[in-house]
Design goal:
With about 70 residues, this protein is an alpha+beta fold. Helix content is about 25%, strand content about 15%. It has one domain (about 1-60). The chain has two helices and two strands; from the N terminus they run αββα. The protein is globular, with a radius of gyration of 13 Å.
Length: about 70
């Protein structure tokens, strides 16, 4: 994370969240708003997500992204 200049919090799960959220594939990424609500969820990974994740994080930092009900 530091090598890429990321300075946001990353939480790793010991299995509890996977069971509660019924995760079906890895990786599963959730973006939370300031209230702790899920603003966006993405399953899987491609190199193209780096750009998308960057603007989603910036939008959340400015609270410019509306929270999506899950």
């Amino acid at each position: 994370m530091k090598e890429r200049g990321f300075n946001f919090t990353v939480l790793l799960d010991d299995g509890y969240v996977n069971k509660q959220a019924k995760v079906t594939a890895f990786p599963t990424t959730w973006f939370l708003d300031r209230e702790g609500r899920i603003a966006f969820k993405k399953i899987g990974w491609t190199k193209y997500l780096v750009e998308e994740f960057s603007w989603r994080i910036e939008a959340l930092r400015g609270e410019g992204l509306q929270t999506r009900k899950q």
